[in-house]
């Protein structure tokens, strides 16, 4: 059993399927950090503005992106609160939530290192083929870039 863990969630049913396994991995009295990652302004604008032009829509585009990020943060707080309730009901007494901005894989890796967790737990959406090539795999990125910290990846049934 591990003394501390980082649990990554995006609030989806797939991501939250890992929560049922935390109490089997983290020792009683251990600390569980629940992490949600939201977009940062530059990342979001790069996905919605035409290539090479953030001037498309000017300040309106920035305002819309900022509103979208705020909405993501509100949803992330709700996801974390739900995960905290589930983990506490499973007997975990030390649960802390955190919201960080940026690319999910990078944010999970840097947060795990900064918090010096003993293990990272996450589920994979199990994307394959073109979806995986287009959207990437956060779990795969974490596995490739997180050295020295074990990663438990759950592939939920049906994926």
Summarize the structure.
It is built from 7 helices and 5 strands, in the order βααβααβαβααβ. By secondary structure, the protein is α/β, with parallel strands linked by helices.
Biggest sheet, spatial arrangement of strands? 3-2-1-4-5
CATH topology: Rossmann fold
Q: What summary fits the major beta sheet? A: 5 strands, parallel
Rg (CA only) = 17 Å
Q: What is the CATH H-level superfamily? A: HUPs
List keywords for this structure.
about 160 residues, alpha/beta, Rossmann fold, 5-stranded parallel sheet, 7 helices
Strand and helix layout:
Blueprint: E1 2-8, H1 13-16, H2 19-25, E2 26-38, H3 41-48, H4 58-89, E3 94-101, H5 104-115, E4 119-123, H6 129-135, H7 138-145, E5 151-154
Parallel strand pairs: 1-2, 1-4, 2-3, 4-5
Helix pairs in contact: 5-7
Please provide a written account of the structure.
The protein has 159 residues and is α/β, with parallel strands linked by helices. The protein has one domain (2-154): 3-Layer(aba) Sandwich (Rossmann fold), CATH 3.40.50.620. The chain has helices at 13-16, 19-25, 41-48, 58-89, 104-115, 129-135, 138-145, and strands at residues 2-8, 26-38, 94-101, 119-123, 151-154. The protein has a five-stranded parallel beta sheet with strand order 3-2-1-4-5, with helices on both faces. Mean pLDDT is 83; it is low at 129-135.
């Amino acid at each position: 059993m591990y003394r501390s863990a980082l649990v990554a969630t995006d609030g989806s049913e797939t991501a939250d399927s890992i929560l049922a396994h935390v109490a089997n991995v983290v020792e009683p009295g251990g600390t569980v950090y629940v992490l949600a990652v939201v977009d940062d302004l530059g990342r979001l604008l790069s996905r919605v503005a035409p290539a090479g032009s953030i001037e498309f829509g000017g300040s309106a585009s920035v305002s819309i992106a900022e509103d979208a990020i705020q909405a993501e943060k509100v949803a992330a707080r709700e996801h974390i609160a739900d995960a905290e309730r589930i983990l506490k009901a499973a007997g975990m007494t030390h649960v802390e939530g955190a919201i960080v901005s940026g690319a999910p894989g990078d944010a999970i890796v840097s947060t795990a290192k900064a918090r010096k967790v003993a293990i990272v737990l996450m589920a994979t959406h199990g994307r394959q083929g073109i979806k995986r090539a287009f959207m990437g795999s956060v779990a795969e990125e974490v596995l490739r870039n997180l050295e020295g910290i074990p990663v438990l990846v759950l592939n939920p049934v049906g994926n």
